[in-house]
Amino acid sequence: MIYLQDISKYLTVTALTKYLKYLIDNDEHLQNVYLRGEISNFKLHSRGHLYFSLKDENSKINAIMFAGHASKLKFKIEDGMKVLVKGKVSVYEPSGNYQIYVTDMIEDGIGNLYVAFEQLKKQLTKEGLFDQKHKKPIPKIPNRIGIITAPTGAAIKDILSTIKRRYPICETILFPSLVQGPEAHLNLIKQLQKAEEYDLDVLIIGRGGGSIEDLWPFNEELLARTIFDFSIPIISAVGHEVDYTICDFVADVRAATPTGAAEIAVPNLVDLLNLIENYKIRLNKSMLNQIDNYQIWLNKLRNSYVLKNPMAIYQVKEQMLDHLIENLITNMKNLMERKKNKYNQIASSYVLKKPQIIYEQKQNNLNKLIEKLEVLNPMSTLKRGYAIIKKNNKAIFNIKLFKPNDEIDIILNEGLLKVNILRVEGKTNDKGRKI
Amino acid sequence: MTKEEKFEEKLTKLEAIVKDLESGNIDLDDAINKYTDAMKIAKECSNKLTKAEEQVNKILTENGKLEDYAPEE
């Protein structure tokens, strides 16, 4: 019976859930859980979180792996896969579910295989078996293709149908082999050795998808070394796109799938025919181009002025000759003119033309000088009425040198006066001097 | 194998001639000769592709013999 008066004893769902979550979150064993189980109900959320269940024969637990952890996984999750996980248990309150929050996960039973794979890969890398320099080129157009795979199953079917679709004119030889199980790698090696004898252009080795254990023969060291020593280019196609094996690394080319391997091995016949057709078109085009160019060149030459008017060559020369002659005449004329002018200048020079003029000129100058002298002749002054006074036969014009009773000569133009001075008066201006 | 190499060589040669002619750095006589060669090669190549036999699939049997093979449908 439920007694309403005891209502305070009743918990809310939330309270209970919170309590359970509290208990679980505080249990150190549940915070660090290592769990093994099989994956079911796997769902990849668009945001990268993984949702799945882990189960065994009797029990089941929901699991979630957030994208941050999930992105580090090195394998693809599938239902039915047996895994080892690490995580913590907690309660998702909205649905009241307890679940494990997975932080790390590996495939169960293959942990050791992974270690072996990584070790071998490291070793062979170190030895240089995967070096690009050892990779043989795949021929573009093979005649005969070898295939090493299982004679039944999807791989051989995919390979042959792809070759038939793309390039249905080559020969294939299947070297049937086991592709899984402990003996498989020895079988693969034996078939590789046989394949060497069949004049192949390229060889495809591979198988369809499977678990890592299934693919394991392709991780065997002996097979890797046989492939490395193989004389024919090898395309490896083991499993799906996400699967990588040692065989893939050591082969000359790795294809994502058997179909991919066939696509690498043969060209597309239609593409090839188109290519040849395209070459033909380009050949015709460039040949026509070239002929066109020559034609244009030829026409240009034919239509050139000189070939059309051969007289033009002559005419040009003729005209040039005229021009030169004209120049020559003009230059000669000019030269003559200049010389003539120079001659005339010299010939007509004053001196040469009238030598008496110089004489006359000199005569003239002389006369002028004589005239000047005439003017300067003191006697000529006398003509104009002036007189010279001499004392003791010396011309004197200083009044102070005269004394009364001095006998002086007064020279006039046409005679001489002998005079005695009566008196001397001190008038000493210019006029007085001349008296 | 040698046959196949020949085919690839032919194709390579064809490509080279096409590029040579397209460059235009070649005199007319040479161009005509090369053009004739190239057309011959092109014809040979396409003949080889179109007239080749259908794909033959074989399998190496236990006793070391090649037999015709068809994958199960």
Task: Give a brief rundown of this model.
The complex is a heterodimer of chains A (435) and B (73). Chain A is of the alpha/beta class and 435 residues long.
What does this protein look like?
The complex is a heterodimer of chains A (435) and B (73). Chain A is of the alpha/beta class. Chain A folds into five domains: 8-108, Nucleic acid-binding proteins (OB fold (Dihydrolipoamide Acetyltransferase, E2P), Beta Barrel), CATH 2.40.50; 114-130 and 142-267, Rossmann fold; 275-324; 346-375; 377-435, no CATH class. In chain A, 46% of the residues lie in helices and 20% in strands. Chain A has helices at residues 13-25, 28-31, 67-70, 111-127, 154-166, 184-195, 212-215, 221-229, 246-250, 258-265, 269-302, 305-308, 311-347, 350-353, 355-376, 378-383, 430-434, and strands at residues 33-44, 50-55, 60-65, 82-92, 97-107, 144-149, 171-176, 202-207, 234-238, 253-254, 388-391, 394-395, 407-412, 415-420. In chain A, the strands form three sheets. A five-stranded mixed barrel of chain A has the order 1-2-3-5-4. Chain A has a five-stranded parallel sheet with strand order 7-6-8-9-10. In chain A, a hairpin with a 5-residue loop joins strand 1 and strand 2. The radius of gyration of chain A is 69 Å and the shape is elongated. The model of chain A is unreliable at 430-435 (pLDDT under 50). Chain B has one domain. Chain B contains two helices and two strands, in the order ααββ. Chain B has helices spanning 2-23, 28-50; strands spanning 56-60, 66-68. A two-stranded antiparallel ribbon of chain B has the order 1-2. In chain B, helix 1 packs antiparallel against helix 2. Chain B is rod-shaped. The interface between A and B is large, with 47 and 40 residues.
